Amino acid sequence: xxxxxxxxxxxxxxxxxxxxxxxxxxxxxxxxxxxxxxxxxxxxxxxxxxxxxxxxxxxxxxxxxxxxxxxxxxxxxxxxxxxxxxxxxxxxxxxxxxxxxxxxxxxxxxxxxxxxxxxxxxxxxxxxxxxxxxxxxxxxxxxxxxxxxxxxxxxxxxxxxxxxxxxxxxxxxxxxxxxxxxxxxxxxxxxxxxxxxxxxxxxxxxxxxxxxxxxxxxxxxxxxxxxxxxxxxxxxxxxxxxxxxxxxxxxxxxxxxxxxxxxxxxxxxxxxxxxxxxxxxxxxxxxxxxxxxxxxxxxxxxxxxxxxxxxxxxxxxxxxxxxxxxxxxxxxxxxxxxxxxxxxxxxxxxxxxxxxxxxxxxxxxxxxxxxxxxxxxxxxxxxxxxxxxxxxxxxxxxxxxxxxxxxxxxxxxxxxxxxxxxxxxxxxxxxxxxxxxxxxxxxxxxxxxxxxxxxxxxxxxxxxxxxxxxxxxxxxxxxxxxxxxxxxx
Amino acid sequence: xxxxxxxxxxxxxxxxxxxxxxxxxxxxxxxxxxxxxxxxxxxxxxxxxxxxxxxxxxxxxxxxxxxxxxxxxxxxxxxxxxxxxxxxxxxxxxxxxxxxxxxxxxxxxxxxxxxxxxxxxxxxxxxxxxxxxxxxxxxxxxxxxxxxxxxxxxxxxxxxxxxxxxxxxxxxxxxxxxxxxxxxxxxxxxxxxxxxxxxxxxxxxxxxxxxxxxxxxxxxxxxxxxxxxxxxxxxxxxxxxxxxxxxxxxxxxxxxxxxxxxxxxxxxxxxxxxxxxxxxxxxxxxxxxxxxxxxxxxxxxxxxxxxxxxxxxxxxxxxxxxxxxxxxxxxxxxxxxxxxxxxxxxxxxxxxxxxxxxxxxxxxxxxxxxxxxxxxxxxxxxxxxxxxxxxxxxxxxxxxxxxxxxxxxxxxxxxxxxxxxxxxxxxxxxxxxxxxxxxxxxxxxxxxxxxxxxxxx
Amino acid sequence: xxxxxxxxxxxxxxxxxxxxxxxxxxxxxxxxxxxxxxxxxxxxxxxxxxxxxxxxxxxxxxxxxxxxxxxxxxxxxxxxxxxxxxxxxxxxxxxxxxxxxxxxxxxxxxxxxxxxxxxxxxxxxxxxxxxxxxxxxxxxxxxxxxxxxxxxxxxxxxxxxxxxxxxxxxxxxxxxxxxxxxxxxxxxxxxxxxxxxxxxxxxxxxxxxxxxxxxxxxxxxxxxxxxxxxxxxxxxxxxxxxxxxxxxxx
Lengths: 489, 457, 250
Description:
The complex is a heterotrimer. Chain A has twelve helices and 23 strands. The two termini of chain A are 26 Å apart. Helix content of chain A is 26%, strand content 34%. Chain A has helices at residues 2-16, 38-47, 52-67, 105-113, 120-124, 149-154, 162-168, 170-176, 187-195, 436-444, 449-465, 470-484; strands spanning 29-31, 90-92, 133-139, 142-146, 158-161, 200-204, 213-219, 230-235, 240-248, 255-258, 261-266, 271-278, 290-301, 307-314, 319-322, 325-328, 334-343, 348-357, 363-373, 377-386, 394-404, 409-418, 424-433. Chain B is α/β, with parallel strands linked by helices. Helices cover 21% and strands 36% of the residues of chain B. In chain B, strands 2-1-5-8-10-12-14-16-18-20 form a ten-stranded mixed sheet, with helices on one face. Chain B is globular. Residues 1-5 and 184-194 of chain B have low confidence and may be disordered. Helices cover 39% and strands 26% of the residues of chain C. Chain C has ten helices and ten strands. In chain C, a hairpin with a 2-residue loop joins strand 9 (217-222) and strand 10 (225-230). In chain C, helix 4 (119-132) packs across helix 6 (150-164) and helix 6 (150-164) runs parallel beside helix 7. Chain C is globular. Chain C starts with a strand and ends with a helix. Chain A binds chain B through residues 73, 388, 401, 403-433, and chain B through 47, 352, 355, 365, 367-397, 457.
């Protein structure tokens, strides 16, 4: 008993721990006035030099957003958001760096502090044979740097900011933007469609296996700023790409809104692996400040034998509202969702996935591991839907919750809907805590309590952590340690 | 009143048209009527009714409440169980079909109508005491259907099992929905003019005293072929150490709408052992809400259902663990053929105080035909850390290896499928703690399977 | 007329051709052994003959008692007297062993226009036959094969064969997973059923089973074809030298 109480205390300590990414960077910013109206939407579009169709699309989205109600079905308490008290456009003044040398050194410094290798030579100077990672960094609203462009271009791969893609590959952007997440999808996606400022764009040509991990780091730096990035990834026939996304924000007392949209499209025989480590500022132990992370992520397996795999490690944000989903249209297509979510202190998370089986022999797999501590509340919300034509569809779902301490909550809300008799669906869920037996066993082998908790939690998440690319796994493991313990690396 | 009124809703009209009753629960009825008016007939926009649509019910034309004479005999669909029988016909007590003169020792049965009208010789005070056992919505939240029952209830049973009573002979509550006005063959329920629907509002208030043990079997059946709507409410309290075995069979006619809300409070060390077998009706929704109020209280709510044609079968459960070391078990199995739809919603809430809770949900569905659908939502809401809670759900067709094995032994496909379906369902009936009821339910299920067409999907 | 006549049988599983032209004639009263290494098509042959979904005959013919076997549904084949003893008998949770056998036997009787058996009489015969195989009554009450050991499952298959009295029994790797005592019991059960009107096709990887169920003919199956036929001596030779020669030859 004593042991458990101490563990809880240690976990409580963690909230008081310093959020390691909580510093801010002092650089000159170019901002549009606070608030949003049609004029602001037009100005954002104008600043980006967008074609008329895109401006119109934004305006249509904005008109709809004004009428749309906030989603209210999630199990998180969202304080009313004053949308007119947010800056919708904030960019480092120095626009459009031609090369890394032109990037404001302060920004480079920021990324260095965060341990993100923006400078290619630094990556190369690392361990011999270390895998290369191409990075697109989004600083507040705009993309500041994309690395390894040349290597990628040789393969015909397009990896750039979405603003750039609008200029350089308008036909692809026009064809696919909003085709997976229409602006009418939900209030947050709708706002994003109206005011998105930047994000990453990836196109992998037919038959090409992307030779390195592609990565975007998002950073909210400016005060009272919302971040509305938009990511669009298209894997053409027979191609493969693995994409990594990481997020941080400075520690501020006011909550900040992050409403992103990610759209993935996989054509015949293509595969997209999308991994996220989300470490937005979670607010302090009393729930002051922190990011509202309202994200719409969805992938469409349009082609036969295509595959989309989401892996997420969610440790940050005050409120998370996020359901990376797969629409399995192509016959034999595969959707996967692997998730670790940790909530501590006053954090709230309502997260999960949707797997929509449309094509024949489509398969999906959901592995969700939720860890709740402190006074946090966490919900897994998932939908598996099998439509009448999805002959032979299969789903396996496993969602496990681990509670640490008696003041947190862990909830599971699965929706399982089948309209095809040949479909086989299996859903399992468990809720448990770290048992005294487990803890005692570790202690009796000489393992300290902190280490034991980390060990057990990491074991609990193992199935998901294993799906992360190497580059991310180490960071993610560290984050789990930090979120729950501090000293465990 | 605005939104609710814009939809077609015969019950709003009926509430407007009803005469005021000056009985013991008049104020309660007013509150209930108000609650229904505010909410209106549930639509699929209401999360709790997401999967079950009552539109068809709204389209039924209802006849003004008429006294249906009680039939001489009960239909064959009633569970064949040796028991002391108590019958409600369209929500009113049918003395001729009730064994009121041979109640077992320790069992007190009163007619709700007598209590409401203070006709049973009890003083006003006693009458009020009894009516206090009824509530607006039996403790359900957003429960317009339960409120509707309270607004219209006329009769029912108040049953008390004395402290310490060990009642051997089971009670058998029969709920008969009778309507012979639409008895033209080939006329489906819900089709206008042919027959007006008969609505009934049966009510049960059951109190099982300390350490008492009793078995109460229920049969919900129909007669006459005309469309019916039964909107029932049961309020059941188990005192400390009480044990209630409660097998319930819903075997209504093909044109019936059946909505029933059962609210349970289960005190320390008491055990509720319920089973719900749903075989009939056009649309049936049985909702069970169990509150485990004392340590070591247990709620076992198991069941099985069978859908064919365009039937909708809904089982919605909510278990509230409000004390430590409480146990809940929910295992449901469903078989769906034709264009039927099965709905399983189960929510288990574990409150912070309910440490060492053990809660398990399991739902297994067999889909036999292309048009059939199953929707499951097994939900856990947990605020205590030292708990063992789990849920599972599966859906699929009959196992092809098993089917081939049977056919390789010479058993024709249709028979082989029927055998496997029966095996799948029978297994779950083993959860029924009372042997007589188990056998009766087994027979009813087998008879129903034999009648079921299109088993070959 | 031969009881079973297979001519140039080709069969596919998931679009892959596994049987590539099988010829085999089995007369009433005979016991044929089909031996072959893993992956040679032994189980495909037995499933194709029994009519399992997904095992598709693409070419050739199978005549059984003068009728086109491939044209019949699996249960029709069983009612006509074909019996497959499964390599991996399937578990049937909730289906009692007695009910299962009674249903099967009555299906066959109905098929032949005979009256259904009286329940008492059936149980009596069943018990006798079960006793001979060393199966306790309790095993008959349990759901079919659920929780049975490997040996119990094979004994149960043999019991079903004894009750259903087939004209042609195909034993698919009946020896797999059996210890020597169980093997003896099962073989004895089979031998008791040997009869001038009944034929057996015994499919096995090892010669061991053939010490107990002595075949009249032995065939070697390799890569979807019968590559050699002979007497029981051929089985002994295979035991000594292995399949290597035949695998290469095919």
